[in-house]
């Protein structure tokens, strides 16, 4: 009798099937990890864009001149002081700032006092909804400002990208004793 050593065809088919299943499972796992990482990256980018926009609005609100915050039908307007001058050019300390929503994009327009040049800054894309309110110490939360009474707080509610509704309340100058 002549016995040959080696694998039978059935053993080879079973081994190939097991390796194919392991390869498929590994690929599915890798694909799931890559998709989760991409989703987290998109979410992180959206959060950073929203944080950046709210940070700019916060900075303007904290530096607003007392009584200069005006809610207009087109958006928010205010005057800010103590703005940074990186080039040390002779400029006024005051700056007129306006926020407007145009074609689902939140824009910030700024102009130095005495200047005709308006600088436009794109703050946020894909804005589905934007609303502003001010807190009037006499009448509470209002969608409009009254000239005689300086508001104490500014409320921003924005819907953008993956975020259904983000609400931020900012104290204005004069709110703190």
From TrEMBL:
Xref: PROSITE patterns: PROKAR_NTER_METHYL (PS00409)
UniProt keywords, alphabetically: Cell inner membrane, Cell membrane, Membrane, Methylation, Transmembrane, Transmembrane helix
One biological process term in Gene Ontology: protein secretion by the type II secretion system
Ranges that cross the membrane: 7-30
Coiled-coil residue spans: none
Subcellular location: Cell inner membrane
One Gene Ontology cellular component annotation held by this UniProt entry: type II protein secretion system complex
Protein topology in the membrane: Single-pass membrane protein
Pfam family, one: N_methyl
NCBIfam families in the cross-refs: IV_pilin_GFxxxE (TIGR02532)
UniProt family annotation: Belongs to the GSP J family.
UniProt name for this protein: Type II secretion system protein J
Organism: Pseudomonas fluorescens
């Amino acid at each position: 009798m002549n016995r040959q050593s080696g694998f039978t065809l059935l053993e080879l088919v079973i081994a190939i099937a097991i390796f194919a299943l392991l390869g498929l499972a590994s690929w599915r796992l890798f694909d799931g990890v890559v998709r989760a990482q991409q989703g987290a990256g998109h979410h992180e980018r959206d959060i950073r864009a929203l944080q950046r926009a709210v940070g700019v609005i916060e900075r303007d609100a904290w530096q607003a001149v007392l009584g200069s915050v005006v809610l207009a039908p087109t958006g928010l307007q205010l005057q800010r002081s103590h703005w940074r001058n990186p080039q040390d050019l002779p400029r006024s300390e005051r700056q007129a700032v306006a926020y407007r929503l145009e074609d689902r994009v939140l824009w910030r327009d700024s102009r130095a006092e005495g200047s005709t040049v308006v600088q436009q800054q794109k703050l946020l894309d894909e804005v589905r909804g934007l609303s502003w309110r001010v807190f009037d110490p006499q009448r509470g939360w209002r969608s409009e400002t009254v000239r005689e009474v300086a508001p104490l707080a500014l409320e921003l509610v924005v819907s953008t990208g993956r975020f259904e509704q983000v609400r931020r309340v900012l104290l204005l100058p004069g709110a703190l004793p």
